Amino acid sequence: MSRAAxxxxxxxxxxxxxxxxxxxxxxxxxxxxxxxxxxxARTVAIKRLHPQYxxxxxxxxxxxxxxxLAARVRHPNVVPTLxxxxxxxxxxxxxxxxxxxxxxxxxxAMKTRGEHVPHDVVVAVLCGVLQGLHAAHEAxxxxxxxxxxxxxxVSPQNILVGVDGVPRVLDFGIAKAAGRAxxxxxxxxKGKVSYMPPEQIQGAVTRRTDVYSxxxxxxxxxxxxxxxxxxxxxxxxxxVIHALVPPPxxxxxxxxxxxDEVVLRGLARxxxxxYATAKDMARALEACARxxxxxxxxxxxxxxxxxxxxxxxxVIADIESQSMNDxxxxxxxxxxxxxxxxxxxxxxxxxxxxxxRAIAQxxxxxxxxxxxxxxxxxxxxxxxxxxxxxxxxxxxxxxTSAPSPGREAPTVTxxxxxxxxxxxxxSAAVSASSVNPSSSAPPPPSASVSAAPSASSPLAxxxxxxxxxxxxxxxxxxxxxxxxVYKEQCL
Length: 491
What we know:
18 helices, alpha+beta, Phosphorylase Kinase, domain 1, single chain, three-stranded antiparallel sheet
């Protein structure tokens, strides 16, 4: 498949739709490019609902439910859903593009070579799938309520093994969940008959339904052939209900017997006899053989699927290199580049003036706290400046009124006046800082000290001397005019 053969791209919203990767009964999956401003682009996978189904309310509901459910499952072993696009009567589900190959094609490639999938690879892939399913089973809605998601369509086609060494579950198109808008019509079976347990045929599904499906995939991957297969769906269904399941080791001599117990317990027709959770089955499977590391799994995928991976990589490289030559894509990019970026899309303030408002929405008391801090800061600076001014006035007064020999300088009155003035100013400042009653953090008392000049500065005031007790010997003094004045303290 080449880019030239696929024709020009189709732009849908902010996505460019390219070649088809795969096609199913309800939808087809395409290569896509996410188009962003300033030339930003990213390769994605776009699932397109077939037009005839896009007009059916039930299928539309099912399609949208898949997006809603997949968005609630956040796990490395689940393919993430990025966006949903509805345009011109069509529906598109945008997913993260994962470079890799489906387990069904990998098993088929190994069978063509006459080989079996290595046991450590089997354990690594299926344990990853079980962990992803467990995350889906445990998913909750926005209110914290369990969604009770059951995939209902676990099969090798819906398991993707990436070249990064990570297996992933995809396609929650027919998943059952609590509160799901779409409901199954009476008599309508959802899923692939070969991988569904007997209770699913009757319409009863739980998380143990997915455990059964994984056990079928495990059996087929170990043995290298289908477990339940008939000439017609009815015959296949009859085998699912009644056929005896042989242990894998009896058909593939290289399979250790430790796998038999895990497989047969997972395939128990009574759900109560199966593993209670997917995580429990993963633990049991890990005890059968050492799981392959991510590096080992990645190397195995690249070696087995080298042809398809190379072909797909060529298609992507061709798309990325020629996308700018496509007039429609280039026009879309130019339109995005000329359009101002709406920061509302990213939930951030548009201007600096909006920042306080945005913060205030997150913390209603934030503005009151900032106002209190500003008031307290101004008060502290005011107190410090006032203290400096008062002290300088006192020192100047001492310098101009130097006492003559034998006379005492009136430092007591000046010191008391300065102390009273500073106290009054400090009281006023404290009152100003407490105007806002919502303040939870008063100004630190050390702030006024740090605002004053340092002791090494030539303008730094010296500590005020403590006033000496006035002497009454003699009990008088002479003023500037030589007049004898009795001291008040000695009367």
